[in-house]
Amino acid sequence: MSGNTGKPRTVRQLLTPSLFVKSIYDVPPDWLKARGITSIITDLDNTLVPWRDYTVAEELADWFDSLHRRGYKTLILSNARPAPTIVELSRKLNTKLIVGAKKPVSCFFRRALELLGSKPHETCVIGDQLFTDVLGGNLVGCHTVLVERIGHKEFVGTKIMRLLERLVRKRIGTT
Q1: What residues have CB less than 8 Å from 158, skipping those under 6 apart?
Q2: Dihedral in degrees, nearest 10, Cα atoms 168, 7, 37, 60
Q3: Which secondary structure element, helix H or strand E, spans residue 77, and what is its range?
Q4: Which stretches of the chain drop beneath a pLDDT of 50?
Q5: Domains and CATH numbers, the chain
Q6: Which residues contact 26 (CB under 8 A, 6 or more apart)?
Q7: Is the dihedral of CA 103, 106, 111, 114 positive or negative?
C-alpha cells in the first residue's frame, strides 16, 4: 500500500504491507530510494529489540547510523509505556521517539509525520504487527514494511492478536 490515493480501501488493502522481509536489516535501500522515501517510522518491541529489552546492540546502532548517513529521518513509534530506558535507547540511536501511542490510531502516526516534517508518501512504517504497524501506516497513506518478530515474549493482548494475525497473513500471503 503506497500512498493514500483518497480512494476507498478494502480491509485487505489496509492490512497488506508494501513489503514483507525477515528483519529491519533486510529492508533494501534501493527499495526505499525507488519510492522517494525520506523518513522511517519504526516500531520498538519485537521489531528493533526483543520485548522490553531496551539495550542497544551494535548491529542496531549501525543500522540507524547507516540510515542517518543516507539522509533518512527516523522516529520510533511505540505503544510501550514511557520509561527512562526507552528514552535512553532513542538517544543512543539518535532518533526521535513517541511512546505511549495507541497504534493503529491515526493521530499518533500523524504526530510522528509532523515531528519528522514528512509527508505520508515519503515515509515508511516498519513493524512486526499487521493490526498496529501496517494498519496504522496504511491508514495515513505511508509505505509499510512488515518484519518477522524478533522474540516470542510479548504482552498478553498481543499474543491474542497474533492468533488472528496468523489467519489474516495466510489470506494475504505473508506467512
Answers
A1: 129
A2: -20
A3: strand 73-77
A4: 1-2
A5: 13-172 (3.40.50.1000)
A6: 147
A7: positive
Distance from C-alpha of 13 to C-alpha of 126, rounded to nearest angstrom: 16
3-state secondary structure of 127: strand
Alpha-carbon span 41 to 69, nearest angstrom: 16
Q: How far is CA 71 from the centre of its chain?
A: 18
- Digit-coded pLDDT (tens) for 102-138: 999 999 999 999 999 999 999 999 999 999 999 999 9
Dihedral, CA atoms, 12, 14, 20, 25, nearest 10 degrees?
A: -170
Please report where in the chains the cell 497474533 appears, as a residue: 162
> Cell numbers at residue 16, please?
497488506
| Structure-block grid coordinates of residue 43 | 516500531
Q: Is the pTM of this model over 0.85?
A: yes
Nearest to 89 by CA among 50, 127, 128: 50
